[in-house]
Amino acid sequence: MTTTEPAPTRSRTAPDERPAIRVRGLVKRYGGRAVVDGIDLDVRRGEVFALLGPNGAGKTTTVEILAGVRRRDAGEVRVLGADPAGGDRAWRDRVGVVGQTTGAGNALTVRETVDHFAHYHVTPQRSEELIAAVGLTEAAGRRVDRLSGGQRRRLEVALGVQGRPDLLFLDEPTTGLDPVARRQFWALVESLQAAGTTVLLTTHYLDEAAHLADRVGVITDGRLVEVAPPAELGGALRREATVHWTEDGAPREVRTLTPAALLRDLLAAVPHGELPDLTVTRPGLEDVYLRLVGIPEEAVR
Amino acid sequence: MTGTVLTRPAPSAWARIAWARVGLELRLFVREPQQVVFSFAYPVLMMVVFGSVFGGNEVSPGVPFSQYFVAGIAATGIMLTSFQAVGTGIAEERDRGDLERLQVLGTPLVAYFGGKAGQVLVSTVAQLAVLLAVASLAYDVPLPDDPARWLTFTWVALGGALAGTVLGIAVSSVVGSARAAGAGIPAFAVVLQFFSGVFFVYTELPAWMQQVAAIFPLKWMTQGMRSVFLPEQAAAAEVAGAWEHGRTALVLAAWVIIGVVVCARTFRWRRGA
């Protein structure tokens, strides 16, 4: 067991050098079908990493395995230096998970819920400060079942960070939130990041991943198909331009890495005329994402 | 492990969490009106119904039915606040995802179980107090004045409540969804009440029913409670011709141990895998 190991000396490598999460060849099967099918992943300490993918891609299963609540079928996983499958209480205290419920029923008030769970943590945040940090001071005396959806979500976030975790898992944290509540939530994640917390979040909102994450991993059919900072996601796909025009009454479309050359040829063919409906477009993040997850753009237009 | 771990103190003692959970469970219990009404009203209602219908009958010379019945209904009440309430309650908590939340917090099992047991003991004491007050004031059931009988009452109630709690936790792992638990556990409890001589005189039941009932704690709890509330000579009317305190204690202790082992081996924080 990890806790019985002798204390490492101070002179050893700085803890920040090692990844917060290291995954190699992770596999999880349900009834013979691999929902997680060989994922390799490294998340650096202090990083905000977004797992982006469609529903059923394996995001939630991956997070559940990393958070130590689901067993894996194969692969090597280290989270904060320990195997989550054997995570002891000291390990769990360093890992925060924002769940879908408060865990204490709906009959408690916000303050009662926060006060209760303070007992579970070694170094809990002060209840008043925590409630204020998630903007629930006004609602602190309200019962959980009388909170709005956004308020509930904020309470769940508060409970996830109550123990001052080194690593926080957020599984689709803003699903169902209105745009204002989403922005407030983003600000909260940014403040956690500023405090040095490593964050792994899953989302199927591209703008969320682009806004929050240092790096994005695109996951589809249980595989991680690309990992990159949001601005670089898609690489070659992104440099590819689509040139569109109408010729002889029929729409034409060409994808090319060298749109200028194509345009010269096209314009040379009609030196005095016009090219009807001429457009040159670069793919946005959404187009890149759709191509990465293998959904034809035509299907969603 | 890593250096950063060592900067954190050791995790909170399980007893501290268990204590916090007793408070939480009690608070949730009193805020759930159906649970409170059911736990307190059901035994009293049964007392009123059966007391009114059969109150005048004597089950044996000098023992009115209401006196016989209060023993059975006290035992039943304990089973309801422990076995039934815990079994259905945990299935609901699991369905709602509350237990998953407790798992990611690293809640020690013993703290969770301790919270349940504490809540059961407090609500059982309150329920028995109400029942005995009604039985004594409204149906003239004489309450024992012998301290030895109250001692018996205490260990039977305590053993029954603990056995009921651990078996409630154990059964919640087996039944699956909250819907299945909500239907199955009360149905099982009602059948067991009939078999165990709560509503009818045990010795008048068919032998096979008696044998089935003798496997489970409820029959022994009712018998133990009869030894508290019935006159000494009524022991002769029992199947064994005696109160069998030793055997009762043994059966309850055995069920507590079996229940703890089953809980520890089968308890699941989440539905499914």
The fraction of residues in strands of chain A falls at 25-35%
Outline type of chain A: elongated
User: Which regions of chain B contain 5 or more consecutive residues with pLDDT less than 50?
Assistant: 1-6
How would you describe the oligomerization state of the chains in this entry?
Answer: heterodimer
Helix content of chain B: over 70%
Structural class by helix and strand composition of chain B: mainly alpha
Please write the CATH class name of the largest domain in chain A: Alpha Beta
What's a quick, concise take on this entry?
The complex is a heterodimer of chains A (301) and B (273). Chain A is α/β, with parallel strands linked by helices and 301 residues long.
Give an overview of the whole structure.
The complex is a heterodimer of chains A (301) and B (273). Chain A is an alpha/beta fold. Chain A folds into two domains: 16-227, 3-Layer(aba) Sandwich (Rossmann fold); 236-300. Helices cover 31% and strands 25% of the residues of chain A. In chain A, strands 5-6-7-3-8-9 form a six-stranded mixed beta sheet, sandwiched between helices. In chain A, strands 2-1-4 form a three-stranded antiparallel beta sheet, with helices on one face. Chain A has a three-stranded antiparallel beta sheet with strand order 11-10-12. In chain A, helix 3 (110-118) packs across helix 4. Chain B has 273 residues and is mostly helical. Chain B has eleven helices and two strands, in the order H-H-H-E-E-H-H-H-H-H-H-H-H. Chain B has a two-stranded antiparallel ribbon with strand order 1-2. In chain B, strand 1 and strand 2 form a beta hairpin. The interface between A and B is large, with 48 and 37 residues.
